[in-house]
Amino acid sequence: MPDKNPDDSPGPAREELLRHHRPAGLKRWGVIVLAGAVAIALIGIGLRVWRGMETREWTDDQAVPTVQVIRLAPPGKGGALNLPGDIQAFINAPIYAQVSGYLKAWHVDIGTPVKKGQVLAELDTPDLDGQVLQGHADLTSAISAQKLSAATAQRWNALFAQGAVSRQDKDIKDADLDAKNAAVAASRANLYSLQAKEGFKRLVAPFDGTVTSRAVDVGALVASGMSATPLFTVSDQTRLRIYVRVPQNYAAAIRPGMKVTFSVPQYPGRTFQASLVASAGAVDAASGTMLVQFMTDNPGNVLQPGGYAQVTLPLPSGANGVRVPATALMFRDEGMMVATVDAGGHVHLKRLNILRDLGQAVDATGISPTERIVDNPPDSLSEGDLVRVAASSGVH
Description:
- It is a single chain.
- This protein is an alpha+beta fold.
- Among the domains are: 66-76 and 320-389, Beta Barrel (conserved putative lor/sdh protein from methanococcus maripaludis s2 fold); 97-204, Helix hairpin bin (Helix Hairpins, Orthogonal Bundle); 235-314, Elongation Factor Tu (Ef-tu), domain 3.
- Helices cover 29% and strands 33% of the residues.
- It is built from four helices and 21 strands.
- The chain has helices spanning 12-18, 26-63, 126-162, 167-198; strands at residues 66-71, 80-95, 101-106, 113-114, 119-124, 202-204, 209-214, 221-222, 232-247, 259-263, 272-284, 289-297, 308-314, 322-325, 330-332, 335-341, 347-351, 353-357, 361-365, 372-375, 388-389.
- The strands form four sheets. Strands 1, 15, 16, 17, 20 and 21 form a six-stranded mixed β-sheet that branches. A six-stranded antiparallel beta barrel has the order 2-9-12-11-10-13.
- Helix 3 runs antiparallel to helix 4 (167-198).
- The longest helix has 38 residues, at 26-63.
- It is elongated and about 180 Å long.
């Protein structure tokens, strides 16, 4: 008979043996593991969100352009403005013939100093001489007719007093005398005019000066009138006028009593002084300039009228505006502009009024030298854009 296995025997011991026993502390470890997994998941999600925000901030930061700004040099004392000028004589008189004829003789040539009333040339005027002779004859005839009419009127007045003639006949004779008197006056006036023209047979200097041109020679036919060529030109060169056309941008710099310096090509390195005496006070629409006149003495006739002068006008402080480098200029539909940056890093576009173009820079108004100017601005830069300012490149 086989032996019986104690394990096969039913009973409380077997049931206790088959029952599952959970290890002690397993639940606590399960909670810890679960909490750790949740913490790891939260940390991962947080890192992902933080990295997304950081990426977005980096992207936004990269979208803000970085610009370099410059500060403009403050305006100096104003400097000077060099402009071309025309030198003219203080008085310049072209001498025309007032009567027609032939040049009989000339007594002065170009460069000759003359005095007022000095004879420059003489004309031979046969036509005028004949008209003068006829004027004398006409006057003599008119006087004779007037005398006869006066005697006739006197006799008829006497007859009228005696009642021998009618008043009508007397009045006719008186009227004839009045007509004869008028004819005498007309003949005398005509003769006076012809005799006055005889005085123009001698061309004289109207003032003290220098003969600067002679356009006639002996035997030449001379025609009267302003449409003809002037026979001589006399200029007063003791004082000279200098005419300068000042651009409208600098018209406000022209002040009464203003003094300028100028130079001429024939005296290199030498300067002369002149004073403002007159200004047109209006801008020429065709050239955009204002004509001003300066005066200078010319002792010894060192300077010659009709020449060219380089005139230097002193300008007040700020007259040239501020100098902006060409690298900061922006060409827009509205005109020439620059971009400025405020304290908050925002861009403001300002339009310039160009006074002078110097090539690598321009002198302009419309901007303050204290503002920060964007150098080499990108074409995409617009009003109000946010920018990042790099290190300043100094004062320009």
